[in-house]
Amino acid sequence: FEPWNDPKAKPYIRIVNVTKTFGDFVAVDNMNLDIYQREFFSLLGPSGCGKTTLLRMLAGFERPTSGRIELDGVDMSTVPPYERPVNMMFQSYALFPHMTVEENIAFGLRQDGVPKEERNRRVEEMLTLVQLTKFGKRKPHQLSGGQRQRVALARSLVKKPKMLLLDEPLGALDKKLREQTQFELMNIQEQVGITFVIVTHDQEEAMTVSSRIAVMNHGRIAQVATPTEIYEYPNSRYVAEFIGDVNVFEGRLSDVAPDHVVITSAEAGTQVYVDRGTSAALGATVWVAVRPEKLDVSLTAPEQPDFNCVKGTVWDIGYLGNLTIYHVRLADGKKVTAAVANRTRLRDRPITWNDEVYLSWAADSAVVLVS
Ligand code: ATP
């Protein structure tokens, strides 16, 4: 499922040169973005980067100051929210406290004058979808946070929208429940087969659920790509640092070939080899980004010839159970983070505070960034 790589696939949503200003503040800055049918698309970015504003424009609650939004080939500029084949689920869920679960889900259908029999059938269908068949007669206050979230989801889907917009849908749930609910949400999205666009500032959540992620920065898109691409091949320091942890070494390009480059980095205290080309020219300032889990930590110099290697001193160790995090200080004071999977038993892990260690990584497990 990669319609964005298929030149014949037609985007379901087209955001074309969209700008949204509030007074002289630019919340969304000349944005272009295509989203395809059945995608689970995430808008990810720090607070204030314009995610919610974009979502509200898709819903029709806000109008672009300039540019246009097309849905299934139709310009939505003059189409009011209630006439769009779109529904929005809010973080607060906004369930009616005095109504039962069934009544909450049926509310929209009742307003549309859907006959009772069909209404009941569709409510039943939704209760099955969100696995709440036994909870139809309860009131919202008799439900857990996760169950309330599912009622809100059922209510958003019962009118069969073509697209569901979700604003921080799992924000109110605790970590464990949120992780579980992410998988439920993916399952439900697959079953109903519609496009989900979700706003989140939780990177792990975006990584877990998304077909693609747009990482936003000050009203602009920094990168749009699959979770793997965003994580493994970020296009800038901003994206690399926003998604997960990363070590960045500044340096100068001292050799450029189509399939590899060499960077001379005072920060790393050595030359760094990267098995990948770059658009930057010889002599340019670039940054090498290496994820902590790509680093090996060892008391002896590694033997792999195609590995980069730097030496440092362990100044902090964080034991996370599944991982151990080593903070290592290099000769010039630069701090590097390595995350090592705890596959061996405790007594087989000899590295400790103040040890001199070798950090090494394969030439194909880093990226060169030009900005
Ligand atoms: P968060 O994660 O905190 O919700 P966000 O990325 O969703 O942030 P938006 O809510 O889209 O950010 O807001 C983007 C910027 O636009 C913010 O600086 C906000 O203050 C501003 N903004 C949003 N709505 C309005 C409005 N109605 N009037 C004036 N400024 C607004």
Automatic annotation (TrEMBL):
UniProt entry tagged with the keyword Cell inner membrane: yes
Catalytic activity: ATP + H2O + polyamine-[polyamine-binding protein]Side 1 = ADP + phosphate + polyamineSide 2 + [polyamine-binding protein]Side 1
PROSITE patterns: ABC_TRANSPORTER_1, ABC_TRANSPORTER_2
UniProt keyword terms in alphabetical order: ATP-binding, Cell inner membrane, Cell membrane, Membrane, Nucleotide-binding, Translocase, Transport
UniProt-listed SUPFAM superfamilies: MOP-like, P-loop containing nucleoside triphosphate hydrolases
EC number: 7.6.2.11
Domain ABC transporter: residue ranges: 13-243
Enzyme class per UniProt: translocase
UniProt GO cellular component terms: ATP-binding cassette (ABC) transporter complex
GO MF terms held by the record: ABC-type putrescine transporter activity; ATP binding; ATP hydrolysis activity
Cross-referenced Pfam families: ABC_tran, TOBE_2
Keyword Membrane attributed: yes
SMART domains for the chain: AAA
Similarity-based family: Belongs to the ABC transporter superfamily. Spermidine/putrescine importer (TC 3.A.1.11.1) family.
Oligomer and partners: The complex is composed of two ATP-binding proteins (PotA), two transmembrane proteins (PotB and PotC) and a solute-binding protein (PotD).
NCBIfam families assigned: potA
Protein role: Part of the ABC transporter complex PotABCD involved in spermidine/putrescine import. Responsible for energy coupling to the transport system.
Protein name: Spermidine/putrescine import ATP-binding protein PotA
Organism: Zavarzinia aquatilis
Gene for this chain: potA
